[in-house]
Write a structure and sequence with these properties.
Order of helices and strands: HEEEEHEHHEHHEEHEHEHHHEHEHHHHH
Distance between the termini: 72 Å
Structural class: alpha/beta
GO cellular component, one term: membrane
Number of domains: 2
EC number: 2.4.2.42
Catalytic activity: 3-O-(beta-D-glucosyl)-L-seryl-[EGF-like domain protein] + UDP-alpha-D-xylose = 3-O-[alpha-D-xylosyl-(1->3)-beta-D-glucosyl]-L-seryl-[EGF-like domain protein] + UDP + H(+)
Shape: globular
Subcellular location: Membrane
Function: Glycosyltransferase which elongates the O-linked glucose attached to EGF-like repeats in the extracellular domain of Notch proteins by catalyzing the addition of xylose.
């Protein structure tokens, strides 16, 4: 009889522990990290998009959805700042896409955004799976007083499974991911999307503020591709419709994604308007042999037919070498200074535009917590003075014109809180 009782007790204990194990698998795993923050690793879910299969095929439940579900990694810094969520203003959402050898460049972009911003940021980092661990390691190595000002989510690269390879290879690897942000970030109202080669020289808050300038029809904002039509690209070479006189550049794009998800867009394919998710693939199929700059060209086509839905912001919010390589031709930057630098064509990593490279190196090398004036501004001014043999170097004062004001928001490791 005792043997039967012992066997029964052992079975009950085994059942209890088995139940606890299964129960634990049903919930997210919380992994403690530095400063009391948490990195939340979520199990596979369907946010409207997911990772790409190597062979472009989807199976099982994935075939029932246009995208394949994958896991996201989130760090929530609210515990780290020792305050309740209600004390913090809603975060600004900043999104970037990274593939290939862009890790360091993307981290420098994030550093510039975190460095100068005033309100909290939430970063949406879309990256290839093999880069996720490197992002976590780098971001979690930043000082606690910096980490307390932002949170982040690492997303897998995800395209519609039936056309994943075609979308991924459009123009540059993964660049067209930005087109699908409204379909992936379904719970996010608005976002600032930037290319990885962007550097903020003013707070993200000021760019985010353009959302309040949208009228009832507008749902996105971008800067013109060029200010001077005589040397612009679209009006001279494009083989497809484009926005305005010179087109728009999508390296910095502000999106009201709630409006983008619900709006019907006029087009030259159907007599009726199409939703964003209905529009993208037919547009690519029609124009793929006529576009040069990939997803940026598709955006130009969309807003050519829907100009009332786009707000233009000045070129100082997307300042590229084209604005100075043939002489200064960005009036807003000449008046107010450069707010956002766009180092396209790889100019941060070669010697073709040393003024752009100098700004990139200054922010990259800056050590959090050190005096920003001597360690960043003064060092940058000295390096820029060596670039005056180039056209962009001759305009180098535009890069630092308002940087001193931005440095007033730089977080210090002395208990000082950024002003909100």
């Amino acid at each position: 009889m005792r043997r039967y009782i012992r066997a029964l007790v052992l079975c009950m204990v085994f059942a209890v522990f088995s139940g606890l194990f299964v129960y634990s698998k049903l919930f997210y795993s919380d992994v403690s990290v530095a400063s009391g923050a948490k990195r939340l690793v979520s199990p596979p879910q369907d946010p409207g998009a997911g990772g790409e299969e190597e062979d472009g095929a989807a199976t099982g439940a994935e075939q029932r959805n246009p995208h394949r579900a994958n896991r996201n990694v989130t760090r929530d810094g609210r515990d780290a700042v020792g305050s309740t969520e209600s004390r913090l203003p809603p975060p600004m959402h900043l999104a970037v896409v990274t593939c290939g050898e862009r890790l360091e460049e993307t981290l420098t972009m994030i550093k510039s955004g975190v460095l100068f911003s005033i309100k909290p940021l939430h970063l949406h980092i879309f990256a290839e799976d093999q880069l996720h661990a490197s992002f976590v390691e780098a971001l979690e190595s930043w000082p606690g007083f910096v980490r307390s000002t932002f949170t982040y989510t690492l997303h897998p690269i995800s395209f519609p499974s039936e056309n994943a390879k075609e979308w991924k290879k459009l123009f540059k690897p993964c660049a067209s991911q930005r087109l699908f942000l409204p379909l992936i970030l379904k719970d996010v109202d608005s976002v600032v999307y930037v290319d990885s080669d962007i550097l903020f020289l003013r707070p993200v808050d000021e760019l985010w503020g353009f959302l309040t300038r949208f009228d009832r029809s507008q749902l996105a904002a971008m800067a013109p591709e060029h200010e001077e039509p005589r040397i612009a690209w679209y009006n001279r070479f494009a083989m497809h419709p484009f926005y305005g006189r010179t087109g728009v550049n999508s390296g910095v794009m502000l999106m009201n994604m709630t409006r983008m998800r619900s709006a019907y867009f006029k087009n030259d394919m159907t007599p009726v308007g199409l939703l964003w998710e209905e529009l993208l693939m037919p547009l690519l199929q029609k124009y793929k042999l006529n576009i040069t700059w990939g997803d940026q060209d598709l955006l130009n086509i969309i807003f050519h037919h829907n100009p009332e839905r786009l707000l233009e912001f000045p070129c100082k919010w997307n300042y590229r070498p084209d604005h100075c390589i043939y002489g200064s031709n960005c009036a807003s930057a000449e008046e107010d200074g450069v707010c956002v630098m766009h180092g396209n064509r790889g100019v941060y990593h070669d010697q073709k535009q040393p003024a752009f490279r100098a700004v990139y190196q200054a922010i990259k090398k800056y050590v959090f917590g050190t005096d920003p004036v001597t360690a960043l501004l003064d060092a940058l001014v000295e390096e820029l003075s060596k670039t005056t043999h180039t056209y962009c170097g001759k305009s180098h004062t535009l890069f630092t014109k308002k940087l001193a004001h931005s440095l007033a928001n730089v977080k210090k490791d002395d208990g000082e809180k950024p002003r909100l």
